[in-house]
Design goal:
This protein is 42% helix and 18% strand. By secondary structure, the chain is an alpha/beta fold. Its cofactor is Fe(2+).
């Protein structure tokens, strides 16, 4: 079969977004996401509510994806789905549906590691976006993960640095909560930071050996800093919101960049790609872009819609696994934690 005649239906349900995409080869024909607003009133994702919403959303989302791609389900070559990591109840909905549909259509089933997908999203055929060449370094940053990965090939990746406690997305969301910002708070910090002074409030960066990260100490430091200043001035947050956000974001970006610089020095690899929900942060994107002139790196920043959880990134992994006959069977199970 010619690669351009390969149609992959991809399903992503690892957290609170129900997503489906159709790819023809490396080209995205449709990429549909149903977001769940119910979690906003709880200040975070409620797993039980998430899995129920997936059950409601999955059929219409897949139907819309097929219609937008202008193909029928009979034209599909294979079905790719997120096996893990993620919320177990959410993963089960996508896995069960993918298994059932592949059996009904008698087409191959492809299990995808969510974190591999964030990295390989860079190989989606998108006008105006270059693809990295192997080997390259990937910085995957999200609400649940912070990793530096040495990517040797599509299926040969090695984690060379990761967080020892909290993920960078948690640091953003926790800061937002401390400041009384609604969930999800990360994008709001990015928004306020644009108006603030990033050097106004210096925070101490954690000292962690090698390429690993730590964000729990920074979260505690921000909490105590805000509590102390609010005790002295009840209007402190409102009067200084932009400067606080800018200072926190600046500190987090410096932590990430110091580790990436070290990884480049240790590996000699000067191609850097970012992925994961936090890579949507404008400050991180801008700082990484500036390194091209500053250090002579080649950087890869994905199209905005491929940063947060989406099915197109699952589909691109599915496509390359299809080319290599890397299929799974109906006995496959979802995994909340999965080996990288």
């Amino acid at each position: 079969m010619h690669p351009k005649e390969v149609f992959i239906l991809a399903i992503e349900s690892s957290c609170d977004d129900t997503a489906a995409a159709v790819l023809r080869g490396e080209k995205v024909l449709s990429n549909v996401v149903a977001r769940q607003s119910i979690h906003e009133e709880y200040g975070g994702v409620v797993p039980e509510l998430a899995s129920r919403a997936h059950q409601q959303n999955i059929v219409p989302v897949i139907d819309v994806a097929l219609k937008k791609a202008n193909i029928t389900k009979e034209q599909l070559s294979a079905i790719a789905f997120t096996q893990g990591p993620g919320l177990m109840g959410s993963l089960l909905v996508g896995t069960s549906f993918a298994k059932s549909l592949s059996m009904a259509l008698r087409i191959p089933l492809i299990a995808v590691n969510h974190m591999h997908a964030h990295i390989l999203a860079h190989f989606i055929d998108e006008e105006g976006y270059d693809k990295p060449t192997f080997p390259f370094l990937a910085l995957t940053i999200s609400g649940g993960h912070t990793q530096i990965v040495k990517v040797n090939d599509f299926f040969d990746m090695e984690i060379i640095g990761e967080t020892t406690d909290d993920a960078v997305g948690e640091a953003f969301d926790k800061t937002a909560k401390i400041l009384g910002l609604p969930y999800p708070g990360g994008p709001l910090i990015d928004q306020f930071a644009k108006e603030g002074n990033p050097k106004k409030y210096p925070f101490t960066k954690p000292k962690v050996e090698g390429l690993d990260f730590s964000f729990s100490g920074l979260k505690t430091q921000i909490l105590y800093f805000v509590q102390k200043n609010v005790a002295a001035n009840p209007n402190f947050i409102e009067e200084n919101k932009a400067d606080i956000c800018a200072s926190v974001q600046h500190t987090i970006i410096e932590i990430l960049m110091e580790k990436i610089k070290l990884a480049v020095a240790e590996t000699g690899i000067r191609q850097i790609a970012i992925g994961g929900g936090v890579s949507a942060n404008s400050g991180i994107r801008q700082t990484l872009k500036e390194t091209e002139n500053k250090y002579g790196w080649k950087t890869f920043i994905p199209k905005f819609e491929y940063t947060t959880d989406n099915a197109a990134m699952i589909g691109i992994v599915g496509y390359h696994k299809f080319l290599h006959d890397q299929f799974t069977n109906a006995g496959v199970v979802s995994k909340a934690r999965i080996e990288f």
